[in-house]
Amino acid sequence: MQWRSVTGLAAVAGFACSAMADINGFNGFNMVYRNFNDYPNSIITPTINGSSGVRIMENMGPVNPDNPQKFANRHFAQFSDDNGVTRLSLQNNQSFKISYKMRINSNIDNDGSGMLWPQQPEGGLWFFNNNAGDFSADGGIFVVGNGTVFVGGANQNFSLIAEGNISPAFTKGDILQMSYTYYAPGVAGALAAYAVQFTNLTTNFTKTVFNTFDAGNPALNGFIDGAGLGFRFQNTRNPLLGSDGTVNDTEYWDVVVVPTPGAASLLALGGLVAARRRRA
Fold first, then answer.
1. pTM to 2 decimals?
2. Which of 59, 88, 107, 205 has its Cα between 20 and 30 A from that of 66?
3. Boundaries of every domain in the chain
4. What is the CATH number of domain 9-279?
């Protein structure tokens, strides 16, 4: 997994957002293709199922003088409340819960070596937490093709679910059930907080993490007003594959948004975490 920051008008042109609205108005996806575009000759095949799911299959193409080996392409399916015309804008003081299933498929490791290719496709729920276009302030749930899963960036304190090089949470092709709950300031305490529940439905591995937002800057207590969210598709390539090239295929489905889960879900989470600690 690699971090990368993009600035400039060209990079942010697709990120226009609507006025702040209740997240309950979510009704579709605003698609942003090639936010990173290191492989401009790739072939993108999207499938959008209203607000219930989205999928992108991308053939990165073989290595040739017009298509040299670089970093990655990146695309977003941003949550929208106007049927995909613009990006939905979050409110700092509105709690919410998002649940979904996802799966990452790729042939990137099929070079005959029996090893994982060092650069892997990535996905996960993403938060656009800076309206000035500086993507270094963004972050979310990082789901990396080697089985690594963690939460970070966007002013969230770091939480590790699994380190892929030690004990991976999944392998490519597994079906993952995930949820993200945002607790606005004052719900779980003075600091905004989040909870992520991860379940690998293929292997039954499950883990829940709960953490706060960074207390270092009181002005950034939780997501900023006007922040956006969406699903990330970050695709790279194995240059050792043949003329068919690397094909990455990431899918999200059964997407459900629940506004203001509030104290009841926090109490349920507390019981779940306590039970897990007793079993540990």
1. 0.87
2. 107
3. 9-279
4. 2.60.120
